[in-house]
Amino acid sequence: MSRIQLLSPRLANQIAAGEVVERPASVVKELLENSLDAGATQIEIDVEQGGMKLIRLRDNGGGIEEQDLPLALSRHATSKILVLEDLEAVNSLGFRGEALASISSVSRLTLTSRRSDAPSAWQVQTEGRDMEPVVSPAAHPQGTCVEVRDLFFNTPARRKFMRTEQTEFKHLEEVVKRLALSRSDVSFVLRHNGRVIHQLRPARTEQDHERRISSVCGPAFIDQALSLDMCAEASGLRLWGWMGLPTFSRSQTDLQYFFVNGRIIRDKLVAHAVRQAYQDVLFHGRHPAFVLYLELDPRLVDVNVHPTKHEVRFREGRLVHDFIFRTLHRVIADVRPEAAVSSAAASLDGGQAADPAPGIPGINAQQFEQGRMPLAQAPLGGSAAAGSSSGSGFQSDYSPAATSLGAVRDQINGYGALHVSANGAGGLGGPGANSAQDAALAAAQAQGEVAPPLGYALAHLHGIYILAQNEQGLVLVDMHAAHERIVYERMKQAYETEVVRSQPLLVPLSMAVSQNEADCAEEQAAVFQRLGFELSRMGEESLVVRQVPVSLARGNIEQLIRDVLSDMLTYGQSQRIENHINELLGTMACHGAVRANRQLSVPEMNGLLRDMEITERSGQCNHGRPTWTQLSLNELDKLFMRGR
Ligand SMILES: Nc1ncnc2c1ncn2[C@@H]1O[C@H](COP(=O)(O)OP(=O)(O)OP(=O)(O)O)[C@@H](O)[C@H]1O
Ligand SMILES: [Mg+2]
């Protein structure tokens, strides 16, 4: 080995650049963050050859003083933090004082800047292995311009990893999109080889904000997204933004934006909480789309854990996980087709807006949408269902209170009877159900009540689809899918409210685990017990399972418990046992739900529609497929080229 020597500043910076500057997109990220930190409201980015030849970023921010210019390009020099306490409550995007030094060590970088109070602008570049700064006068309006040419010209190994111009530009564009989503109050222009690719005006109103989301994420997203804004007063957490409806799922995770105090992050804990929230409503292998903003006291989040700052560490990880999960879960559960009813109620109320969903302050039910149909909170208790007093078989067991497992079982048996009964009129409702329902509907209509959101059944198409008429036009319902969800939700509710039945294992199962896991199992014993497990610690590193829930007795208990413990250790909680149980209930529900090709009577169909209106997550079946859709009169008119 040779003797120890100090690295030259350029080489030290090039090594540091290895972590932060991976490709042109990383340069743009750092430069954009600097402009935002400098309070810029207008940012223009010019790129040539995917950023490999040139990246020029111009802002109208605060600018840099002449004397500070040399420091801006040196390592460990920043205006953003001074002492350790600042690092513990960072509210700027940068704080390391490394980005410009790193970038200028692997490219030809020129920094030009002018403060508002300065008579003229100045420019700085670095030279040689010592990165000696050279300052000269320049012409520039207030703000800063950074020009980065020939990225990696002096680090050929890095240069080899660059992809085609188009690929590099795609990455770069994605970075611009993310930052544009994080700050809709700032205007952005992105040009590639002289062509304008994005021109985003600053958003001042909620509408403008949605327009920006739409131009970045595509109009389909915002059309099929629920907006939310929720605060947890006690912990000072706020979560707001837009989450795609489960039916707007994607094959990739490419439309997922999560910001923590304005910084985009990809975090395991957050990803887990979101996945859990969509669990049960997404088609297998599909991914949700969302643009979400979490705001919290900067002291509660450590941003100094990852070189590119893509990850963060929450000081109260469990609390944050729980808050995100519960908020999103609630929003999805409340996607129900009820706006028509509540807008009717509102008009009776003298035109006041619909109530926010009970128990979830901040969520305005009017913001919910499925397709083009506005949705709102269910008037629980069935007053919405004009025909709910009828004796229809579909209806009879269907008050929201009927949630005991026994009742659910009876229901399923009832649906079984539907399969065999020869025709709808003689179905569960018994003779006369049809006329009773019709009379009830007629009475409701006569009293001037507005039709329920999913309207009234007209016919049953090929034994598969229910056609119904509502105020907007035609509603189409996949009978089996809709019914499956209803049965499933009922079964889950029943399962939750009853004591879980468990059975002893013939041979108790002993498991070798780590000490951490054993501690965790001990701490969480009550959770396991509530779910039907009897589990105790046998030694430092072993557990024994004596009793398990009946429904899981035939599964791989050991694997399940291991996975659960690992979740609990990482995320503070685990939904795995519930998920397994839900999966089983889902299968049962699928078998219990009415099959296609079974002709339903009108009252039965109306019963199903009313049930959909009061059932959580009724917009998708258990497999995430949509259960209903709306064809408005306008759309029908278009089909027939009929002008109104
Ligand atoms: N566009 C800009 N407008 C005003 N000042 C800037 C701009 N870009 C950089 N600066 C100044 O130069 C300093 C160094 O920037 P640099 O990006 O290297 O470090 P940083 O932003 O402080 O930390 P990090 O390395 O985490 O990005 C900043 O602290 C800031 O004072
Ligand atoms: Mg920076």
Task: Please explain how this structure is put together.
This protein has 644 residues and is α+β, with helices and mostly antiparallel strands. It contains 22 helices and 24 strands. The strands form six sheets. It has an eight-stranded mixed β-sheet. It has a five-stranded mixed β-sheet with strand order 9-10-13-11-12, with helices on both faces. A four-stranded antiparallel β-sheet has the order 18-19-20-24. A hairpin with a 2-residue loop joins β11 and β12. α2 packs parallel to α7 and α10 (268-278) runs parallel beside α11 (317-333). The longest helix is centred in the C-terminal third of the chain and has 19 residues, at 479-497. The radius of gyration is 30 Å and the shape is globular. It starts with 8 loop residues before the first helix and ends in a 5-residue tail after the last helix. The protein binds adenosine-5'-triphosphate and magnesium ion. Residues 30, 34-35, 38, 59, 61-64, 72, 78-80, 94-101, 144 line the site of adenosine-5'-triphosphate (ATP).
